[in-house]
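Obj.: predict assembly geometry.
Materials: sequence records (below).
Method: joint structure prediction, all chains together.
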Amino acid sequence: MQYTRSIRRLIEELGKLPGIGPKTAQRLAYHLVTASPEVSTNLAAAIVEAREKLRYCSECADITEDDPCNMCRDERRSVRHICVVEQPRDVVALEKAHGFSGRYHVLHGSLSPMEGIGPERLTIDRLLERVRRGGVDEVILATNASLEGEATALYLAKVLKNLGVKVSRLAFGLPVGADLEYTDGRTLARAIEGRREV
Amino acid sequence: MYLLHLEARDFRNYGELLVAPHPSLNIIRGQNAQGKSNFIEALYVSLRGCSYRATREADLIRWGKPCAVVGGIIKPGSEEADLSIRTLIHPDRKEIRVDGNPVRRGEIVERTGVVLFTPEDLWLIKGGPQGRRRFMDRELGLFSAGYFDDLQHCRRALSQRNALLRQRGGSRAENELWTEQVCRFGARILSARLKLLREYVPLVCRLFNRWTGGDLNIRYQSSVVISGIDNGALENSLLKAVVDREKEEHRFRQTLSGPHRDDLQFMINGHDARSFGSQGQQRAIILALKLAQIEFWQLRTGRQPVILLDDVLFELDEPRRRAVLDALRNRAQVFLTVGDAVFQSTDEHKSFHVVDGNLGEEG
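Observations (raw structure tokens):
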């Protein structure tokens, strides 16, 4: 089928977004052009505003409107603990858990030579700078449990240990409330590896 | 373990396939290109969650149909409850379910069991090292907990390290990091392979000796000097091998040491069977490998695997054919295809006849 030019362009642009395949892109495009005009203008305005106002925090590299970000300015949050994550969305996940009241640091990815991502492409220099300034007791590495996340954590552990700061890694193991019997072998093996004295 | 029931829809040249096999011997007759091998493949896919011969899984779907389904009911052991298994194949994805719950492929492999004989097995001896590594990874690795995961990690770490070698730009710390990853997972694979072979190889050699009187020896040829069999010792050996070949690696821009470069060597009376073995000797090795696999299943899991023989029986001379049939008799559920040749079996069995994608039981 032939689309008119502007519809085709809209479908192409939507299709570039993560998680959106050709069918979804088509559905969204037709929705946007047939729904009331405010739907499209509001969406467009929201995108433009977000792009204009949002920047990276000069401290933790999280996405923020104000620099430094709210969390970096929050006096109630301990500066002695820094939790390092891969993506801004990981900060949101950890905040939802209410288990951490220190500061964050967002790497914006993990080490992956296949994608051309070396340490210089992540915000590692900025993290080292924060630690060098002093006042930090512990850096908690909360990168993903993937091969690349683990490798990034190992790399950070090495470079941070030279600075004389305590470095810890998130624990891996049993999901809370889970039965041993239904836990997959890989997770169980990690849980045994990471067991601790009680 | 045996299949009580198999069904498939839109799988290869089968529209609908519904079979209630015999718990021991099943004979499938039919002329060429009617669907005998496809039937064997359907059995394999339902028990293994993947094919052994399709280059793309989409090829398993019947021409013009959106998806294929294979599955059935298995009886795992005398004490255990029946298990329903089902694999749904779409052109771009696959879904495996056990008792209705989605599972990873590794899990279905752990809960079922299948040993396949095909004429292509001969390539295990004649072909390149890749096929022999694949045999170790797929057929033996499943008996070692975590092997598939470690293998995936190992491959990915290798790709990452090779990418870094190609870029040549990595810092010292970065190079070390990926070298450590490769060695860490590589050592686990090496260790698991060596431990498995220590149990499996004697089974193979004994069978070979019993048939031919010859002396078979199977060696693991490693790109690494092996001084111990545990993870730690192997990790050190691997690290040393990588450091020793650093210059070469930078020239070829590839990781040259590790389980991905290793091989198995088959020696008959001290001579390499690949170059010096007769066709008959090579066949005997294959049969010994396969029958030992069946013993290995019993040893490791206490269960009998389902045995599939696709067109192999009639390539064998009479004594070996007897040896295979004797070894299989009344021990496990067997499916064998026999072409149009007349095959008389006095054992209790069921016969099926395939014509153009229709499989029917013969009275």
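Conclusions so far: The interface with chain B takes residues 111-114, 116, 118-119, 147-148, 150-151, 154-155, 158-159, 184-186, 189 of chain A (CB under 8 Å).
To do: check interface contacts against the pulldown list.
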